[in-house]
Structure formats: structure tokens, C-alpha cells
Amino acid sequence: MMQESTYSVTFIASYSDGDRYPLKIEVDASGVEQAIMLATAKAESSRFQKDNLLLMSVIPELCPPATEDVNIDGILKPCPFCGNPHISLVGTLREFDGEITWFANCGCCNASQLPDSKEGATRNWNQRDEVKA
Ligand SMILES: [Zn+2]
Question: Is 113 exposed, middle or buried (0-12, 13-18, 19+ CB in 10 A)?
């Protein structure tokens, strides 16, 4: 199954008074081509004519990819705030003693936690209560 994400498709559209304005349409699609197709269809169903549409940009609203130790083996539970399954375990150097400490981070809503050992950070993240954002 193709994974769908949200795309912001922006056209420049002509209005009946002759002025031209940006027209931004959000669609859920599995790729850029499909996003353009769906957005064009949406625009056509409005009062704009297709040949007045000038495609300006297609921007996927994706979660940023996980960094550092990516959660490929599913050790870290999905983000309790936004449901993003791609949680990163990020190592950081603690300045006062030079120790590497770790924290889980959601690149989507930027939920994070206090640094701990790698095992502690994993345990703490997975013990989070589900909180509705
Ligand atoms: Zn999140």
C-alpha cells in the first residue's frame, strides 16, 4: 500500500476580473504527480478555468526523517503526541563531564525528553502516557 501524505499545491490563478492570485490547495496523495492531478481537479471544480492555472509549487508536508539512531527495529514506541512512528534516539555530549547522554525525539512535533542513558531514554520514552496534544 502506498503511503499517503499531505501536499500543498500552489497555483497562480486568474480571477474573472483579470487579476491573478495564488491559489493554495491541500491534497492527500501518494506522490507529487498524483498531488498535482488531484489539486488540478479540485481547482477545476471551483470557479477557475484549468488554462488559467499556473503551477507554482508542490510542497510535501512530511515529517522530517529521523536522525542518528533511527527507530528501525521499533524499540521506541510511536510519538504519544502526534503518532509519528519514526522516533530518533539522539546522542548528545554532556558538557560538564563529557558523557554521552541520550534522548528520544519526535522530528514531527519535536516532542523530546530529558537526556539519560541509552537504555533509560528508551525506557522513559516508552513509559510515556498517551497525551492528547
Ligand atoms: Zn510527535
Answer: middle
Q: What angle do CA 79, 60, 77 make, to 5 degrees?
A: 15
**Distance (Å) from CA 100 to ligand 1 centroid:** 24
CB-neighbour burial class of residue 45 (10 A; exposed 0-12, middle 13-18, buried 19+): exposed
Cβ burial 13-25 (10 Å sphere, 16+ → b, else e): bbeeeeeeeebeb
Residue 7, CA atoms < 13 Å, CB-side half-sphere: 23
Cross-strand pairs, 94? none
Q: What is the pLDDT of residues 43-87, one digit of tens each?
A: 877 765 556 788 888 877 766 555 555 555 567 888 888 888 778
**C-alpha to C-alpha distance for 7 and 23, rounded to whole angstroms:** 13
Alpha carbons 102 and 118: distance in angstroms, whole number: 5
Confidence label for 38 from pLDDT (cuts 50, 70 and 90): very high
Q: Could you tell me the distance, in angstroms and rounded to a whole number, from the CA of residue 77 to the centre of ligand 1? A: 11
For ligand 1, the distance from its centroid to the CA atom of residue 115, given in whole angstroms, is 17
